[in-house]
Amino acid sequence: MASFVPPSVDNPTKPIVNSTVTLSFPFSPTDYTIRPLRRSDYSRGYLDVLRVLTTVGDIAEEEWNQRYDWIKSRNDEYYMLVVCDGQDRVVGTGSLIVERKFIHSLGLVGHIEDIAVEAGQQGKKLGLRIIQALDHVAAQVGCYKSILDCSEANEGFYVKCGFKRAGLEMAHYY
């Protein structure tokens, strides 16, 4: 099982997930691990996994490093996990972004985003494991709920993960 380190209210820089977190899954022919995103995941296929989900663009390594450092500096807001195969190649990912609210007694809401699994790795319950790990993190940091947006085609997957339809997504693109 993964070892999670809960954040401290007095020390928000203490990570919820330490850098040595691993979670092994009993899948053949290789084992998979789930861990926090690392700077070096640029060269391990992280962006290629995101391309399964949506347009990523051509991101240079220097740009990656700048964005990674910005996100890492907000480690009490962004929890980005990756699934790696036996060769330490990124084959899945998902993120939890924690929103601070005035409602619900200054409650926290977890936004689950960017769930993606490499096409050749789909069907192995890796997406489910990512959702379960992010749900665990959300509960550990004190979120009163987690929400996500998905296409109708993916609704069944998220229902199996314990989510239910709770409204209608609206978007205004720029």
From TrEMBL:
Its EC number is 2.3.1.4. Signal peptide: none annotated. One of its GO terms (biological process) is UDP-N-acetylglucosamine biosynthetic process. Residues 32-174 form the N-acetyltransferase domain. It comes from the Eukaryota. GO terms for cellular component: endoplasmic reticulum membrane. PROSITE patterns: GNAT. InterPro entries: Acyl_CoA_acyltransferase (IPR016181), GNAT_dom (IPR000182), GNPNAT1-like (IPR039143). Keywords: Acyltransferase, Endoplasmic reticulum, Membrane, Transferase. It catalyses: D-glucosamine 6-phosphate + acetyl-CoA = N-acetyl-D-glucosamine 6-phosphate + CoA + H(+). PANTHER family: GLUCOSAMINE 6-PHOSPHATE N-ACETYLTRANSFERASE. This is Glucosamine 6-phosphate N-acetyltransferase. It comes from Penicillium chermesinum.
